[in-house]
Amino acid sequence: MNELRKPGLLGPGADHKGSAAPSQGEWRRADPPAALSTMPHRDLTRLLGRCLAFDLDPSDLHRLRTQLLSSPDLWQELTDFATHEALVHALERRLHARGLLPSQFLPGEAAAFAPDGQLRTAAAALSKRREVLGEQLREIIKPLNRIGIQPIILKGARSLLTGEPDWRYLRDFDLLIPDQADAAFAEFVARGFEVPQAEQGRNRRHHLPPLVRGDFPAFIEIHRRAGNQYVRTLLPTEELAAASEAVEDGGVKFALLPTHLHTLYGLVHHQIGHAGDARGTISLKGLYEFAWELDRMTSAERAALHARANRNPRLSTALDAWIAAAAELYGLPVERPLAVREDAAQRWQATFARIGEPRPWYKYPGYPDEVRMALAGSRIQVAPFGGNAAGRAWTRLRVLRSFLPRFTK
């Protein structure tokens, strides 16, 4: 098999574990880069955040440049960590734009021996992989179009069609086809795709088993519903499908979510669907993608994101938590109507403090903060029916009920 075409070759998770698996960016006790690194895990996380920061003042930029250019041995650790977090392409792009790669200061062939060589090689490979993925995504949409299906393209696959961000890592194509999922699945099987042996017999609730083919560079996941049982009531599939916008480009027809719903969907997928809220963790990859999208939003898109999140305190809690984390770790400028809330900032500090620490004996250390934030009066009052006592009581009950699927699975 062509090395470039192996599913999930570059970055974490080369084997497909499915959406029930822990998020790639979760901080676990035995993360390989942390275990092998001479730098504490928190310090590596902080360094990666500074390298990727959206806003660095001149003094911070000078300190970062001094650290990177005077420590050749640091590059291996930083590259390994960024690769593990599926941010190595983004890291190379940001450092190159700021003139922080040692190779940029070396003439001709000498640049090949710079300490950032592995970083540049990985980024170039991922860039090439994205080209192949983009071509193949369009190729698999065509047979769906021929049988009357226009899939809603979710998550990373969207970036292959829009070109933004051009550094985003992905290992599968997520296609939302609520009413014709079985027909789409049968079409791919007829074209030689099959379910991996390890995935056969697994109980799937919101998407069909992943499909692979020996000559194809990614997994295909066909979604009946947009999210699993933990997020289904927060962002209903029917709402997302109705809001999706039809696109015809390069001879293929598909649909995309509006920017604010795409951003909120990605946040909910990581933070609630993959239990970041429950475990008290956060996906560094997901957080940076979220920050990148937020940084490019128009004022109207920010307002739409804010308004949609405020319809459910669980959503506004997740949004506030990620805004606070992105602002502190990645230096994201936060513009109105969004803001860094005090309880969210405190929660991020608690999350950051868990990095590299042994897991507690209890399963969900993040839930106390999640429940406290979701039941806060400021979030309850702006939700629908929050203007009177009966409505607030109903909303609190609704919030508490939203936690039940995690404990009754």
Which characteristics define this entry?
6% strand; mainly alpha; three-stranded mixed beta sheet; 409 residues; globular; disordered N terminus
Account of the protein in words:
This protein is mainly α and 409 residues long. Among the domains are: 9-125, no CATH class; 258-409, no CATH class. It has helices spanning 32-36, 41-52, 58-69, 74-84, 88-97, 117-146, 155-162, 181-190, 237-243, 259-273, 276-279, 284-295, 299-309, 313-329, 342-353, 367-374, 377-382, 389-401, 404-408; strands at 152-154, 172-176, 219-223, 245-249, 252-256. A 3-stranded mixed beta sheet has the order 1-2-3. The longest helix has 30 residues, at 117-146. The chain is globular, with a radius of gyration of 21 Å. The relative contact order is 0.11.
- Indicate the mean pLDDT: 89
Using only C-alpha atoms, the radius of gyration works out to 21 Å
Structural class: mainly alpha
Helix fraction, binned, reads 40-55%
Largest sheet: number of strands, sense, barrel closure = 3 strands, mixed
Number of strands: 5
Sheet with most strands: strand arrangement: 1-2-3
Order of helices and strands: HHHHHHEHEHEHEEHHHHHHHHHH
